[in-house]
Amino acid sequence: MLLIDENGEKQGEMPIDAALDAAREAGLDLVEVSPNDETPVCKIVDYGKMRYEAQKKKAAAKKKQKTSELKEIKFRPNIDTHDYEVKAKKISQFFEEGDKVKITLRFRGREMAHQHLGMELLERVKGEFAEQMKVELEPKLEGRQMTMVMAPR
């Protein structure tokens, strides 16, 4: 096996017993770095310190990544223009943050007879945000609710 000492210098190929002796002399651990090669590579390091640094690196990478959340905006079929504009502004804000948006359109009472109004409203939203997002789940009716899911591009 190939041995790398605590300074990062190659010591060459040697048997396992000699590598273990060298690690004991240095007061450190012998860690197998690359077991899959035809000649395995071992390194003399402080194993506890190596695990700690790997854990810190993993935590830093996890901290940097952005998780995409699913935000929900609720509409009614006969929404007024100002209310629509406020909700549209909130949708664009969600897209800028990188979140998905679920648009829920709720029908109550006799509004179920005018489902075409709800579909027109969802098409209006889809058309307004066409360059910012892509439709992940097309509008569909489930009971008294019509839903559509959009994700940022």
Please write out the topology.
Blueprint: E1 2-4, E2 10-13, H1 16-26, E3 29-34, E4 41-45, H2 47-64, E5 70-75, H3 81-96, E6 100-106, H4 115-128, E7 133-142, E8 145-152
Describe, in short, the structure shown.
With 153 residues, the chain is α/β, with parallel strands linked by helices.
Protein model, in words:
It is a single chain. The protein has four helices and eight strands. It is an alpha/beta fold. It has a four-stranded mixed beta sheet. A four-stranded mixed beta sheet has the order 5-6-8-7, covered by helices on one side. It is rod-shaped, with a radius of gyration of 30 Å. The relative contact order is 0.11.
For the structure shown, list the relevant keywords.
4 helices, rod-shaped, alpha/beta, 153 residues
The whole-number mean of residue pLDDT values reads 90
Cα separation of the termini: 49 Å
Shape: rod-shaped
The H/E string reads EEHEEHEHEHEE
Number of strands: 8
Strand content: 25-35%
